[in-house]
Amino acid sequence: MHLLTPILLLLLLRSAEPRRGPRSGTVERGAGGRVRGRGRAGVMRRQTQECKEYMEAGEKYLDCQDRQLTTVMQDWPKDIHHLLLARNKIQVLRDNMFSQFTQLKSLDLQQNDISMVEDGAFSGLSQLTTLLLQHNGLKTATEEVLLPMPRLVYLRLYDNPWSCHCQLDSLVRTLQVPSNRNLGNYGKCAEPQSLRGQKLRKLNVESLCAKDQQVEGRPGGREGGQPPPIKVKTEATSMCHTYMFPKPLLDCSNKDLNDMPSDLPSDIVKMDLSWNTIKHLRPKQFLLSKDLKMLNLSGNSLQHIDTGAFAGLLYLRELDLSNNSLHYFQYGVLEDLYFLRKLSLENNPWICDYNIHYLIYWLKHHPGVFYTGLICSEPQEFRGWRVEDYVKTYNGECPMDKQTGEMDTGQGGQGGTDNEALELLADMGDRQGERLPRPLKEKKPNRFEIIRLS
């Protein structure tokens, strides 16, 4: 018993020792510090892992958009073909920044904070064909930047505050080479004031430096008696965002546009103009958007769509006109949409009168178009009806003998045409079968007609 008591005391003292104040506190703080250190490393690893790597059409994509990145990570895969770095926090493109990605074909750097590009930033990118630098803070660059990319075909430079002085001379000359027709198409001068708004590709390069000297001492002055250009319409390249992957998309949603923007890019496949205040579509506003397949105009205040508004949209597949103020379509509005497959018409105040017939007629002759939301809003007696049901009953109240009598004379009801009469006959035949008046069935055309010549 005397031996067991000291042994038990020793065991109790050892079990209580880690809980002693100062020493145990130090251990905990140290452990906590190491945990926090591991956390920072873990954040960096997770940030890299968050980049989405995927294959499409046999090519490898690395999607690192919206990751708050300030540089390129060295542990990214080297065999990628497309690198998406839009909407990050990159400020400077350093020499050899992308040199490890020797197979890269496209590089998306739009919507960062890039204000400087060193001459060797794109070294090693001999296979690059697409470079997106729009929506940044670039003021100047030289042709040296483009030399490592001999296969470059598409270069986007717009919505950068380009300073059109002597330092920009070599870059402008490169952009203006005739074979470089897709390089820097929409880039524009932000300064000096006399050149503000002029496209880089249209500048007079020979006098660029001379004009630079003339501007000194003339703040806001005019060169050669030429006033600064006045921007009349909102331009898509300055207001909207362009994404090239996975398909070219022009995003102009929620931009407070009250009219269609000008300068619409011609190579866009999807266009989002939703949730603006556009009220009127005029003829040929999409004429250059020949590759457009999806057009979203929902959530505007559309009241009028002119005939020819969709001219040029030969390959359009989806059209969203929901949540607008449309009452009907003028005759011919939809005639340019040969390959349309989906038409969204919800939440429009459709008026069910004679003007709505064109839309139903067009849909009837384009059975491959899936449409939704065609409900009568006015007049009160037809509110809530499907528009196609209203059209079917348009002649429902006319007496049967009056209808058949008018059709016997070859005239449609109330100023209609022969085609309308035939369509009415077909509808009546579908609904009534053998109840059609017998004289119409038994009447036989005359085989001979005697013409007396005087």
Automatic annotation (TrEMBL):
Residues 19-43, 211-230 are annotated as: Disordered. Residues 1-18 form the signal peptide. SUPFAM superfamilies: L domain-like. One of its GO terms (cellular component) is plasma membrane. This is LRRCT domain-containing protein. It holds the Pfam family LRR_8. Residues 160-210, 348-399 form the LRRCT domain. Keywords: Leucine-rich repeat, Repeat, Signal. InterPro entries: Cys-rich_flank_reg_C, Leu-rich_rpt, Leu-rich_rpt_typical-subtyp, LRR_dom_sf, LRR_TM_domain-containing. The lineage of its organism: Eukaryota, Metazoa, Chordata, Craniata, Vertebrata.
